[in-house]
Amino acid sequence: MEALSTSPVSTALSRIADVAGEFGVPGVGLFAKALRSGQTPVEKVVEQLEDGAYAEIARIWKHLEGRDAEFEEFNARLQSREAQSVYFSAALHGLRTSDPNKHLRLGALTINSVYVNDLKPESLDDMMRAAVELKGEDILVLSKICLDQEQIMKRFGGVNGPEWGKAVDESWRQAVARSRSQPTSERKLHNLDWKSSLSRLAALGFLISVPTESKADDPHMPYGLLLQGFKFIQRLKEIG
């Protein structure tokens, strides 16, 4: 299997300099200069994005061994005009953080989205925002809620009337009870800053607060898992 001859992320990111040149002061290149002198130099951001991207490409290539038609289809999709637009968007999102782990995550998630052909701008923007904005603690919280509410998601397919709300409320109460029954030393999830994580996850459209008449003594309202949140965790599992 031959490596791609031209880095898709590098090709897309080179357009940033063109845009910067158009709007910068002639002979000075203010935008290009800002990109080069940011907290993390743009070249380093690209390098980290590509590390994540090519790790995912290698994983997918291995997965497609012996499936020549699908292999060729994936490689063609990687080079498509639609994919180039996606790489450009990912590069811009990557400039919003200096965290190399988030760059790796973003690069891998971008390629995974190309692989599954989930390239709708709204869906991708949410996924990319999450890749660079969410902290490790936020992902732990979302993963726990996905584990608790996976069957509810499969049954209802997301927000779906009062029965869905009751199922979420009951799942939430049971999860709180299980957490509080653990020894203090094992309450890693219980001791996280759930309020902040829930707010960030809800802002991304991954969770939604569920009004309830329950008198449970948990300090937080129950939150229901939304399809985008479920998809995000599934993608993270796929890319490892």
Describe the fold and architecture.
The chain is 68% helix and 2% strand. About 2% of the residues have low confidence. The protein is globular. Helix 3 crosses helix 6, helix 5 runs antiparallel to helix 6 and helix 6 packs antiparallel against helix 7. The relative contact order is 0.11. Strands 1-2 form a two-stranded antiparallel sheet. It is an all-alpha fold. The chain starts with 7 loop residues before the first helix and ends with a helix. It has two domains: 126 residues, no CATH class; 104 residues, no CATH class.
Radius of gyration: 21 Å
Tell me the number of structural domains: 2
H and E string: HHHHHHHHHHEEH
Q: Main sheet?
A: 2 strands, antiparallel
Mean pLDDT: 81
Major sheet: arrangement of strands:
1-2
Number of strands: 2
How many helices does DSSP assign? 11
Cα(first) to Cα(last) distance is 22 Å
